[in-house]
Amino acid sequence: MKNKGKLIVISGPSGVGKGTICRQLLEECEDLVLSVSATTRAPRVEDKEGVTYYFKNREEFEQMIARGDFLEWAIYNNNYYGTPCLPVEEKLNQGMNVLLEIDVQGALHVKKNFPEGVYIFIAPPDTETLYSRLRGRGTENPEEIARRVDAATLELSKQNEYDYIVINDVLQQAVEDVKEIIKGRSERI
Ligand code: 5GP
């Protein structure tokens, strides 16, 4: 019997660079796989069905909730986001480490049911840098940006509920910090 893999849950406010950190981790750690979430938000140019997300309409997503298909789901910015359970369980049972990049509500929900997971919050070096990154991103309209700034403020207030906080000041350093945590070599906060 193979050892079960670890569930690695990464969150942090929109604009903090957690997507970049996760992509880098997936390139550098061969025993790490990404859990692909389902969402009702509209695809962006860089999105690919089945790779970045499974794109669903609200009705399809609500049917998945009713069937109990999700490990967790949350409403973020008026859209549903959820982690399908089955692929996560299968990969953990095969001994792989599974990476979830999800929002704070979802992460804290998973933490309640699965405390043996590793919960990592990616924080900005300072909040002003984060807010200016969010405003400058150019992929969203002003209302959407304002909602993300509000969501970021709320998310930052929950960082102490995580096992680890990694500050994304220098990208490669943040990636190395997360790798050390995954290997079990860092102190919990
Ligand atoms: P985005 O629309 O920028 O891709 O993602 C918005 C937020 O939703 C991010 O904070 C992202 O981490 C989070 N998110 C992505 N997938 C999931 C999921 O399956 N569950 C939850 N709870 N949040 C998710």
Share of helix among residues? Answer: 40-55%
- Could you name the CATH class? Alpha Beta
With helices defined by DSSP (H or I, 4 residues minimum), what is the helix count? 7
Give the bound compounds: guanosine-5'-monophosphate
Shape type: globular
The CATH architecture: 3-Layer(aba) Sandwich
Fill in the CATH topology: Rossmann fold
Let me know the average pLDDT: 92
Q: What is the radius of gyration computed over CA atoms, rounded to a whole number of angstroms? A: 16 Å
* Major beta-sheet overview: 5 strands, parallel
Number of domains: 1
Distance between the termini: 32 Å
Q: Order of strands across the biggest sheet?
A: 2-7-1-8-9
Strand portion, in percent?
15-25%
* CATH superfamily caption: P-loop containing nucleotide triphosphate hydrolases
Low-pLDDT segments: none
What would your notes on this structure say?
With 189 residues, the chain is of the alpha/beta class. The chain has one domain (7-184): P-loop containing nucleotide triphosphate hydrolases (Rossmann fold). It contains seven helices and nine strands. The strands form two sheets. It has a five-stranded parallel beta sheet with strand order 2-7-1-8-9, sandwiched between helices. It has a four-stranded mixed beta sheet with strand order 4-3-6-5. A hairpin with a 2-residue loop joins strand 5 (70-76) and strand 6 (79-84). Helix 1 (18-28) crosses helix 7. Bound molecules: guanosine-5'-monophosphate. Guanosine-5'-monophosphate (5GP) is lined by residues 14, 37, 41, 72, 74, 76, 81-83, 101-103, 105-106.
